[in-house]
Amino acid sequence: MTKGTSYLTRNDTLGTMVANPAFRGFGHLLLPWNDRADFDLPLSRIARLLPYHSQMDVDTV
């Protein structure tokens, strides 16, 4: 892990993920759309945003 970064947990939000220093410069590209994300959504509920990945388990990833 890069200095100054931290691991994400299921309790972190999309906003935390996008702003994480580990993704500096491309965090906004982690989501498939612009300006439509609910940045308060916890990562534990991210599967609802991924219609083609219905078996996503945040505890495994």
Defining key terms:
61 residues; little secondary structure; 1 helix
Task: Specify the structural class.
Answer: little secondary structure
- Total count of domains: 1
State the assembly state of the protein chains: single chain
How many strand segments? 0
Distance between the termini: 16 Å
Global morphology: globular
Give the biggest sheet. none
Q: What is the typical, i.e. mean, pLDDT?
A: 81
Low-confidence spans: pLDDT under 50, at least 5 residues?
none
Radius of gyration: 12 Å
Protein name: Alpha/beta hydrolase
Keywords: Hydrolase
GO molecular function, one term: hydrolase activity
Descriptive report:
The chain is mostly loops and 61 residues long. The protein has one domain (7-61). The protein is built from one helix and no strands. The radius of gyration is 12 Å and the shape is globular. Keywords: Hydrolase. One of its GO terms (molecular function) is hydrolase activity. It comes from Trichococcus flocculiformis.
Short summary:
The protein has one helix and no strands. About 10% of the residues lie in helices and about 0% in strands. It is largely without helices or strands and about 60 residues long.
Show the helix and strand layout.
Blueprint: H1 14-19
